[in-house]
Amino acid sequence: MLNDLLASLPFMSEARADLVISAFWPMVKAGFLVSVPLAIASFICGMVIAVLVALLRVTPVNGWWHRIALQLAKIYISVIRGTPMLVQISIVFYGLPAIGIFIDPIPAAIIGFSLNIGAYASETIRAAILSVPKGQWEAGYSVGMTYLQTFRRIIAPQAFRVSVPPLSNTFISLFKDTSLASVVTVTELFRVAQQVANSAYDFLPVYILAGLVYWCFCWVLFFLQARIETRLDRYVAR
Amino acid sequence: MIEIRDIHKTFGAHTILRGVDLDVEKGQVVVILGPSGSGKTTLLRCLNALEVPEQGIIRFDGAAPLTVDFSRKPDKKTILALRRKSGMVFQQYNLFPHKTAAENIMEGLLVVQGKTPQQAKETAMRLLDKVGLADKAELYPHQLSGGQQQRVGIVRALALEPDLMLFDEPTSALDPELVQDILNTMKALASEGWTMIVVTHEIKFAMEAADKVVVMDGGVIVEQGSPEQLFRDPQHERTRSFLQQIRSV
User: Fold this and answer.
1) In this structure, what DSSP letter does residue B138 have?
2) What is the homologous superfamily of the domain A2-235 according to CATH?
3) Per-residue model confidence (pLDDT) at position A92
4) What is the pLDDT of residues B131-151, one digit of tens each?
């Protein structure tokens, strides 16, 4: 019945309907088993980098090692923001073996993605930290808290709320960009689509289906973002 | 007793404090008056090292005496120790917006003084009750009026039982009808024997509650004395012109 329905759509045929139906579950499976874990792992590693770089940049400069680290961080952000992600993960997977560093496809993809979103998100997090009024730091100090206590208990929660919408965007972009892992031979959602399309030599319906599957995954992310924002907004005047 | 000696503070090219000396006895209420830009808020902020002076000495007597000499840059531990001697009430309240009224008060008790959550909660509820906000304990700051927020701000500082309470223009951001409310709360604290330094423009409060009134201008103390003496018979020309100005408002 589904087959008939699909075949009746414009530009579709019996054979195309079969192709699309046969490609659907492998794609969803690759999405759940590869694309989603890849995005989550890269996001977590990327956030660790981002928070460290952001802290480095908002902390009052303190000694020569801080100055050096600050310069390195600026170079890192500039390089990552100034080069395509495709080039970055290609260097990690195809380039590094030339100097004796061999990394498996999935770790290579995670390294590439983490470094990439670490640089972008560090700017987001830095801005979020700076958006918390100075009086909040002073209030923390005035009750006797140290710099780290004030940061952790007073500043970070408020900065987190501010950074949820932009970081959600980062995560949603990252999830879609995991399709780039196909070029380093990771069998994620889009690589499955490519394999099916190549073998049938019929690209349009399979790639449209791939797009639809990505879209459905993103719906879940949109929903989660809205839930988190509502929860964090409970202490904000409306 | 708290001794403040020769405090100097500059911001870039601007010299804000040019050698301030002040003694505050235990249980005394000191009100600092002065035109804007006279350095009174900066002085207050130097006392808990929100601003670090370039020069000067701050000395706390008592059970745990502390002397901080700013001619050498004090280390982090000294600054922290100085901050823990005093509590501060801010002009803009500066409550933690992501914490309820009770949690705002509990924060320092939990994190700084290592109290258990039960102890901290008990203290918070007792103090909220004292300022008439027991039923607001679970509300977030944005759900409270300015006057209610400032009362939470006061008891947040009070909860830590500091040697010294600092008030930085605590009523300046409030609607006029709420000012008296906060002043009454502060008078009650004064009569309980808290040591307080208050920067304010409320002359009436100074007359009724202060043990000592200090007039600052141009980064120095131009005159100090009991409120009777200072308001009835100011010695200094700058005090006279300042008092005239604020009385004419």
Assistant:
1) T
2) MetI-like (1.10.3720.10)
3) 94
4) 999 999 999 999 999 999 999
* B185 occurs within a structural domain: no
Please state, in angstroms and rounded to a whole number, the distance separating the CA atoms of residues B104 and A136. Answer: 12
Alpha carbon A176 to its chain's center: 8
Condensed to tens digits (0 to 9), the pLDDT of residues A117-148 reads: 999 999 999 999 999 999 999 999 999 999 99
Min Cα–Cα distance to chain B from A66, Å = 18
Two tokens at B51?
């601003």
Q: How far is B162 from chain A (nearest CA, A)?
A: 9
Segments making up each domain of chain A, as ranges = 2-235
Q: Quick check: A143 and B90 CB within 8 A?
A: no
Do A158 and B97 make contact, defined as CB atoms within 8 angstroms?
A: yes
Spell out the residues 6+ positions from residue B202 whose beta carbon is closer than 8 angstroms to its own: B171, B179, B183
Both ends of chain A: CA-CA distance in Å? 50
Look up the domain containing B138 and give its range. 98-161
Query: Is B3 part of any domain?
Result: no
Please judge whether A143 and B48 are an interchain contact, meaning their C-beta atoms are less than 8 angstroms apart.
no
Nearest to A139 among B80, B96, B160 (CB): B96
Q: Which amino acid is at A75?
A: I
Confirm whether B26 is domain-assigned. no
What pLDDT score was predicted for residue A238? 59
In tens, the pLDDT along A27-72 reads 999 999 999 999 999 999 999 999 999 999 998 888 899 999 999 9
The reply to whether residue B94 touches residue A136, judged by beta carbons under 8 angstroms, is yes
If phi over 0 gives left and psi between -120 and 50 gives alpha, with beta otherwise, what is residue A38? Answer: alpha
Q: Is B143 inside any structural domain?
A: yes
Interface check for A154 against chain B (CB to CB < 8 A): the answer is yes
pLDDT in tens, chain B (249 residues): 899 999 999 999 999 999 999 999 999 999 999 998 999 999 999 999 999 999 999 999 988 999 999 999 999 999 999 999 999 999 999 999 999 999 999 999 999 999 999 999 999 999 999 999 999 999 999 999 999 999 999 999 999 999 999 999 999 999 988 999 999 999 999 999 999 999 999 999 999 999 999 999 999 999 999 999 999 999 999 899 888 888 776
Of B26, B167, B32, the closest CA to residue B87 belongs to B167
Question: For chain B, how many structural domains are there in total?
Answer: 1
The verdict on a CB contact (< 8 Å) between B80 and A146 is yes
Interface of B with A (CB under 8 A): 48-50, 76, 80, 83-84, 86-88, 90, 92, 94-99, 107-108, 111-113, 140-142, 156-157, 160
CA distance A157 to chain B (A): 8
Cβ pair B80:A149 closer than 8 A: no
Q: Is B17 helix (H, G, I), strand (E, B) or coil?
A: strand
Q: Which residues contact A237 (CB under 8 A, 6 or more apart)?
A: B142
